[in-house]
Design brief:
The chain is mainly beta and 903 residues long. The chain contains 5 helices and 47 strands. It is found in: Cell outer membrane.
Length: 903
Amino acid sequence: MLLIGFIGFSISIQAQNSGIKGIVTDNQKIPLEMVSVAILSPKDSTFLSYATTDLKGIFHLQDVPKDTVIIQLNLLGFTQYSKKLVYNNSLIDLKTIVLEDDVSSLDEIVIAAVVPIQIKKDTVSYNANSFKVNHDDNIEGLLGKLPGMEIEDGKIISQGNAVTKIMIDGKEFFGGDPSIVLKNISADAIAKVEVIDKKSDEAELTGVSDGNKQIVINFTLKKTKKNRGFGKVSGGLGLDNRYFGNANYNQFNSKTQLSVIGKFNNINITGSNIQGFLENADGVADESEDDTNDNFNIKQKSLSGFLETKVTGVHYGRELKKRESLNADYFYNASENSGISETNRINFTNTNNFNFKSTNDYLNTTNNHNFNFNYENKANKTHTIKLRGRFYTDDRNYNLDRKGVYENENNEIVTENNLLSNNTTFKKYGNINFNLYRRLLKKGRSFNTGFNWVVNNYDRENDQHTFITRNINTDTPVYQEIIALRDEESSSSNFNLRFKYTEPLGGNHYLNAEVNASFYDVDESTDQSRTTIKTTIEEDFIKFDYTFFQNIMRTKLFHSYNTPKINISTTMELYNLRREFGQEIDQIYTKEKLYVTPSFFFQYKPNRGEKLRFTYRRVIRAPRPRETNPFINDLSPYFIRTGNVDLQPEKVHSFVSFYNVNSSNSSINFNTRLQYNYSTDAIIRSYTIDDDYIRTSSYQNNGERHRLNAQVRFSKKLNKLGVRFNLNNRFFYNSANSIVNFNLNKIESQDISTNFVIQNTRKRKVDLKAGVFYGVNNTSFSIEKDLDRKFTTQKYFGMVDVDATKRLNLNTQLDYIIYNDDKFDIHQELPIWNAAMSYSLSPKNNIVKLVLIDLLNKNVDVFRRSTDNFFEETIGQSLGRYVILSYTYRLNNGKRKPKRKSS
């Protein structure tokens, strides 16, 4: 924060004596707000910088390169203003600039074809031609060039806010899933990028701002791409039998959208959003392992092992009539992930500590089918109808050969535990969501109603074969073999019905009443047979049926005050929770209680690009079905789980604050978010661990839980250096209890990370990027002071992308990663070096590319986690070095020839 403050102070001093400023008015000398002020290169009209005018028509563009530039002013309804300037780092005051209503030229230089940025109300529009991209870039490459836009962990961040939906020509594309759009539409097909601060459906219909907005990006296609097919086909072969193939075809017009994609590869690239894949990508797929919900550090996502992927999808959208549309898509994924990893785990209790080490040989396969549809009708000015649906099936098979040993505190092997398991899960899911928004005669009076229905079914078959050898260091070792077969069937239905009515009270005040009814029903059936071979053979059978029903009735009454700049809402809610669960032939437990849950919302937008928000909610977190299921799950002989029928709901107080500043004049983007959750009657884990290292886990209400999540982002362009830097700081704190062998264990965990990236802003021929990431996790346990853990991750990275000629592109990047862990005495350094060279055989159509991945062959992946009674580190093999030569052909990439006029 001191660094940010110092930089901000220096920038403010510099800005007073540099840049280009002026006042923009119309013919009547009335100041014009939201005029787009852009700086262009006179050589090729490349976008360099921009600003907007404020309420008084004033602009001060501080980020101007020392060069001959063109300043361009644009506002819808007025003539474009362009002027050539020579800037030498001294302040240029253009005084008053008058935009004319009629078409006229105010200077000898007019670039009417290039309007790099336009601003209108809640939309910022970028001309894609003003930003340099490579021949083979997808939309993802284009977004990385736009000011205020970042791509982080596959998510798009615009001015500090996550983008929730992406559209093509104003219509949904594969359900609006950003990752599919980013990787399957070429950058050169895009004419315009619109970043829309979209109002809620209710606010759009009633015209009353409620402060609930989402960031939406709409890509407008070039005219040459409409009414004709376009896309690309690419394929590549490499050493060690590596291969990939990609194809996509698109045909869009004013009424319909058709897109087809297909991908297959064995180079660990998913290529699209393959749902659920990353959940098991670390390769340890034993279903008997612990829930990761109780981890005390953020779970890392990994692509360990060797992955083979096949993907295909088709999307069709049609505008039935004006403002009425239907979109549907189908997506199929098949993947196979195999590899070997080694796990080192330290377990602790109040009496003794022990280690568990294992070598894991895994093979995971996935097949899933996804179907989505979306119907929207806004044809009637008085009401809006939305109907969405999603259906999928997911078939997964996990095979694991794990060889494990338990060691005592003296690092002596006491027990061997070898496991062969085959787990198959088949899941079916369906979701229907319907919403009706209706505006009544009086302005501001409206109601909306809708329902959401989710049906979920899964069938899981578990086959486990465990070989155990105890007392290895004694004269009388004990051998045991356990063969377990367990079939689990579960079906659930969750139906939610909602009705809301809004009555205007006058003076921007509104009274709102809302009723929600939720019905959640779960039925589980389990059959298990187990054979234990010791000195004798023992067989046992388990069969039980578990039912769970939950009904939540919520009645809200809230007052809101809504203006374009201020939104305030105060809510009082009656929350009635009723639960019935147990075995019908045995005992049904009934729990019911009424709660009062207040909430408060405040949002203030003093200026364009500046937003302050604060919310408070009291949330009732009901116990989940698995947490109250009284039946024992002992499929894994070393990890036995059961629920607690006496669990009470957890009460959570949630505080969230958000502040965002995005100044186009100074090219500063500052965003901070703080979330604090305080829970009482916290639902925690309770463990007992015996002398044979067998853990039994249950749940109970105990004490409090504290969670704090803070994030600060700061971005600024430094004009004199011609660079932009981004600084992203995160802090995550978690404090909770667990019970270990009937002793209270208080866990505190802190995750702190800093990410600093610097890149050049003038990317006409050279694109440079460098940065550093540092992250540290500190976890402490009150039950065992000597096992407080600290591990760090350092990452240094750099990238150079050069257009050597108009057709030849060279790219290289180096990541240098350092892992340290004080409990496992690990210091590991991994340099990862990648490079690529692409050459266009013909202008933009035929591209040959040579890709070299992991040239130093450091095929290692590290995954670490800390939980409430153990911590571990897993080191797995990854793909390693490979080289691929590929060819890409663009379909219908040339410009359409004009039709000849008849004589």
